[in-house]
Each structure stands twice: as structure tokens, then as C-alpha cells.
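Page 47, continued from p. 46.
Same chain as before, 273 aa.
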Amino acid sequence: MRAWIDGQLLPDATAPAVSVSDHGLTVGDGVFEAIKVVDGQPFALTLHLERLARSAHGLGLPTPDDDAVRRGVTAVLEGEPLALGRIRITYTGGPAPLGSGRGDAEPTLIVVADRMDPWPATTTVAIVEWPRNERGALAGLKTTSYAENVVALADARSRGASEAIFANLAGHLCEGTGSNVFYVVAGELRTPTLASGCLAGVTRGLILEWFGGREVDEPIEVVRGASEVFLASTTRDVQGVSRWDGVDLPAPGPVTTAATACWRDREPELLGR
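Result:
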């Protein structure tokens, strides 16, 4: 693992390096991006940095310095041959008084790179009882306030699943803790709209662009009648779902297999970009 913070590559990535009063630490006032690394190259870096800026704007943070972030990415990848890995970019409100109010310090920018194991081709998911708030202040933003996801994922894992699935306040399918959901009904590939409150996943957007699919908001119960389901995320790419909240599904199904093949064909276009 290699870590870069505010312009400096750390000699020891495990050493303490962030102020105990950093607003990202004390109240979760920060945004982040996770970026896949393939053969030493970041995948879709520009798309991720554009979303980082949108999340920062939504949280009221200054726009991150794009050049500085790219320097950080270059620094953590140099001399660290990663056949498969991930970069984590974290951008916080910086040191601040204890409490919700921000101080006047500069934001903190952290870039970390580490190896990553590939996900299995299929997985199982469980619906959790807590809804996403599609009307909340953080809806659609990739913030460091992930405690809700931690609780939901622990609940799903206690039931033998590897991912938790949320409905929103309207009872419509929304998203997973770290993934977008695609499903097939009557031969049509569908996924929730961004109005559902789900994250505008980079992988989600590329699947819609490269492979197709219809964005629609439907009650989460509709998915029980789906012929196949897959998850999409930066680290999973396209991952078939073999069990949806206790219901077995063929996985990977034919649409999932075709989407995976399309992804593998198109992925090289955005390596290093």
C-alpha cells in the first residue's frame, strides 16, 4: 500500500498522518472515489474525478484541484506494480473545531493505492429494512458518511449475503451499499433512475452507454419476478446475482454474460484515462 497526503508521499502508509480534528474523521465531512487499477493504469480516472468534484460541490466543499489529485494518483502508482488494484481518493473539510461547523483550514486530500483481489463471478444479496432517503441532503453524493452502509452490510452478511440492497422512501428499488442494480424483466434490462437516490455509478453509466438498458423506477418487489439480476460497481464490474433475498436466480444469465463480454471488450478504452 502507498499513500499520498496533501502533496507528500508517505514513507510508511500505515503511520498516523491525519489530524485528530479533521472534519472527515470527526463528523464524516468528506467525499471519496474508488478507482480500479488494471496493469498499473487507473480505469476511467477522468470520469471519477468529475464525480468527485460533483460530490464536493454537493457537500459544500471547495472544488478539488484536479492537477493535485492526478499528481497524487501518479505518486502512489509509481514503483507499485499493480496487476489489479484500487485507488482511494478522499477529500475532506480539513481540520476544524469539534462539532458540525467547519473551520477555515484547507481541505485534506488523500490518495491511497493497494492491491485488490477480483470479485467472484456471482454473489448473493439481501434486502434490508432501512430505506434510502432519495430526498436527503446527501442523496446521490459519494460521501465518507458510510455508517448506514456498514450497518446494512453487516445485516446482509448475517443472513449469508455479500451485499445489502436498499429500497427508497417510495418503496422503489434504489441501490446496494456499494453497487448499482440491474435486472431483466420480460427480456428488458432495467436499472433505477438517478431520481431514486442511487449513486450515479461510473460503471452503471458506462454499461448504459456501451450495452444499453432502460432507466425506470419500480417497486422493489418487481425484482422478485426478474429472470436475472447483476450488480455493477468500480471493483465488481458486472457481477451476476445467484440469490436475491432468498430467491435463487440463474447466474450469470445470458444478459449478464453478454454485458460482461461487452465490458471486457470496451474496458481498455478508458485505461489510463
